[in-house]
Amino acid sequence: MRRFPLTCVWVFCFSLILPWAVRSAGKDSPSNWPGFRGPSANGVADGFPAPVSWDVDAPRNIAWKTPLPGLSHSSPIVWGDRLFVTTAIPTKGNPELKVGLYGDVEPVAEDIVQQYKVYCLDKRTGKIRWERLAYQGVPKVKRHPKSTHANSTPATDGRHLVAFFGSEGLYCYDLEGRLLWKKDFGILDSGFFTDPSAQWGFASSPIIHEGTVLLQCDVQKNSFLAALDVSTGQERWRTPRKDVPTWSTPTVLAGKERTQVLVNGYKHIGGYDFRTGRELWNMSGGGDIPIPTPVFADGLIFINSAHGRLSPIYAIKPDAAGDISLPENQSSSDYVAWSVGRGGSYMQTPLIYGDWLYNLQVNGALTCYRARSGEKVYSQTLGKMTAFSASGVAADGKLYFTAEDGSVFVVKAGPEYQLLGTNSMKDVCMATPAISEGTLFFRTQHFLIAVSGK
């Protein structure tokens, strides 16, 4: 047994075809959640009251609950009054999904045709506005029993919607569901680098910034970071990466002097020039299965990972340049404000809210640090022997951490641990929720559920 280490051009005027509600607000509007973990992947959406408790069965504080077919861990995204999500639907049978804390695994070989679909729902009612079949066929790469064939969260800029299905291609639509272009990158094989037969499925999500789609494709062979014109799909640049397979989504940091694309990695954590793809800085010394997304907050870049010998948390200064790898037994440098050698998370992207960094591990261990200094403030375990895959999000002074069994722990933000409540989604939940105007949108194994305190 293996030990688990875990083209169509834009040819018509946008303003004539989309309602004002879709066009109105930018990506940083509190009503929009345009990609994985919202604006800048920070997981925060303030400005509206957010719920503490709810009951899916009653239902209490449940705005709507819509069944979704297939199996997918992609998170929902929101723009205006629309919500978008992807899925992969087998043409026969029920796909296996094995959740929880376990170690011995084999990839799932499914010789079954899948329908790779994109859905648009009404954010207020949960009614499906449209659905589109992006691709149909037998998966080109196997998946992990805890994974799916639609892991990557879509992204939108209010005009375009991009959905990435890894080896099955990248698809760009307008918000009415018209296909604008598509692109095939060939086989994108993500799996454990020490055992290429252990295929676990592609999971890095696309992001859109200033008319550019950014893709991080760290795979077994020929890894790369790429930038594409969001209107045409034309490649603007592609930078090779020498790293093992990763499942992390990149982040854009727009600074006064430079805009950089931040990426996680094992051998190659780094920052790249947004305009050219030129490397700006790099470092090694991460966990060997990098999944968490880089986050910029409080003037620092936070990157963590956990697997194998290392499980670091790094707080990196945005003006970093060159190789900034830390020598052994050194926790800071000119470009690294602080770090911890062990304590990083395997699956979850860290949550920085106010002055505090909250780091959740797969076993429910939640640690709070002072974001600027790295001082540990508290450590607390959520649940008992409960597995977590979804990343934490925050709103209205509350933190939301979702366990795989559907338990949602609501924690008061601040330097002292206070559990405000625990709620059950009554279904398996692996995806990170979205937040819009105080409503949380949970993607469970079988449903999309809107939870609101209104």
Task: Describe the SSE topology.
Elements: H1 20-23, E1 62-67, E2 77-79, E3 82-90, E4 114-122, E5 128-137, E6 155-156, E7 160-164, E8 170-174, E9 179-183, E10 207-209, E11 212-217, E12 224-229, E13 235-240, E14 251-254, E15 259-263, E16 269-273, E17 279-283, E18 295-297, E19 300-304, E20 313-316, E21 322-323, E22 336-340, E23 351-353, E24 356-360, E25 365-370, E26 376-381, E27 393-395, E28 398-402, E29 407-412, E30 419-424, E31 434-436, E32 439-443, E33 447-451
Parallel strand pairs: 17-21
Antiparallel strand pairs: 1-33, 2-3, 3-4, 4-5, 6-7, 7-8, 8-9, 10-11, 11-12, 12-13, 14-15, 15-16, 16-17, 18-19, 19-20, 20-22, 23-24, 24-25, 25-26, 27-28, 28-29, 29-30, 31-32, 32-33
Structure description:
- The chain is mainly β and 454 residues long.
- It has one helix at residues 20-23; strands at residues 62-67, 77-79, 82-90, 114-122, 128-137, 155-156, 160-164, 170-174, 179-183, 207-209, 212-217, 224-229, 235-240, 251-254, 259-263, 269-273, 279-283, 295-297, 300-304, 313-316, 322-323, 336-340, 351-353, 356-360, 365-370, 376-381, 393-395, 398-402, 407-412, 419-424, 434-436, 439-443, 447-451.
- It has one domain: Methylamine Dehydrogenase, Chain H (7 Propeller), CATH 2.130.10.
- Residues 1-25 have low confidence and may be disordered.
- Helix content is 1%, strand content 37%.
Brief write-up:
The protein has 454 residues and is mainly beta. The protein has one helix spanning 20-23, and strands at 62-67, 77-79, 82-90, 114-122, 128-137, 155-156, 160-164, 170-174, 179-183, 207-209, 212-217, 224-229, 235-240, 251-254, 259-263, 269-273, 279-283, 295-297, 300-304, 313-316, 322-323, 336-340, 351-353, 356-360, 365-370, 376-381, 393-395, 398-402, 407-412, 419-424, 434-436, 439-443, 447-451.
